[in-house]
Amino acid sequence: MARKALVPSSGRAGAALNAARWALPLLAAGARWISTHPEVWETVKEQATRLQTTTTNRPDGVLATVAILREQVDYLEGSADDAGETRRAQDWAKRLDSCERAAQLLKAPGATRKDRKTLKVRTEALRSEIFEAYIEEMGEDAEVAEHSVG
Q1: How many CB atoms lie under 10 A from the CB of residue 102?
Q2: Could you read off the pLDDT of 45-89 as tens digits, one per residue?
Q3: Is the pTM of this model over 0.90?
Q4: Domain coordinates of the chain in residue numbers?
Q5: Integer-rounded Cα radius of gyration of the chain
Q6: How far is Cα 150 from Cα 146, in angstroms, rounded to an integer?
Q7: What burial class does residue 128 get, using C-beta atoms within 10 Å of its C-beta: 0-12 exposed, 13-18 middle, 19+ buried?
């Protein structure tokens, strides 16, 4: 017997629920930066909105998500404080390249639903990892800028 979802998975309610699943925990993690640096909040809010408007259900949505995440990874690599952060950003860039290649392949006829779902899961995991690091780095950079001015 098929299970019924308590919350619809499509439409506005489904989109809002999906966004809340990945964005709210990340924003909670960055709350300490956001409360003391409103400029960080504005940038993070803009990036979250951009990520929320793309869907990872289809290859074109994955490509759009990868483009947004690539901007964040470029920021992370440019503002890395040590070799570990640089290496982590480079690893994310490679994983984004892999997702991009997979999305290009899945645009071709004959791509299976299972392959699309696998790519969706990979992309969403990357989105959470990268966005969390992005929020953290934006906050750290704001703290450093505040202390260097003050």
Answers
A1: 19
A2: 899 889 988 889 999 999 999 999 999 999 999 999 999 999 999
A3: no
A4: 57-150
A5: 17
A6: 6
A7: middle
